[in-house]
Backbone:
């Protein structure tokens, strides 16, 4: 967070809470989105949080289907597409949030 942003807000006479809401929070959210998205995708791919939520792990289910049907490529291909779909949705949501919280001069959002 550049100190000049906060100093400019104080120079304009904004109270501390208003400075936080209007200047600090949008910039901090914009910076935090990328790391949060990366963490969410990594957690999904490792499937550990899926077990906590109550769903069975996707790879475990795929292994059970393979042991019953012996269709390895079809089963893991579908599992791969499911992982890809969820990760793509998370990435698209992240890009949407980045565009909405874009701060001029803080980097280019594609």
Residues:
């Amino acid at each position: 967070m550049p100190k000049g942003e906060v100093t400019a807000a104080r120079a304009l006479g904004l109270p501390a809470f208003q400075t936080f809401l209007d200047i600090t929070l949008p910039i901090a959210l914009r910076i935090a989105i990328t790391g949060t998205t990366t963490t969410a995708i990594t957690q999904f791919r490792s499937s550990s949080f899926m077990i906590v939520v109550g769903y069975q792990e996707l790879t475990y289910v795929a292994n059970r289907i393979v042991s019953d049907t012996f269709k390895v490529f079809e089963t893991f291909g579908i599992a791969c597409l499911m992982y890809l779909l969820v990760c793509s949705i998370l990435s698209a949501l992240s890009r949407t949030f980045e565009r909405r919280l874009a701060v001029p001069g803080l980097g280019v959002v594609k």
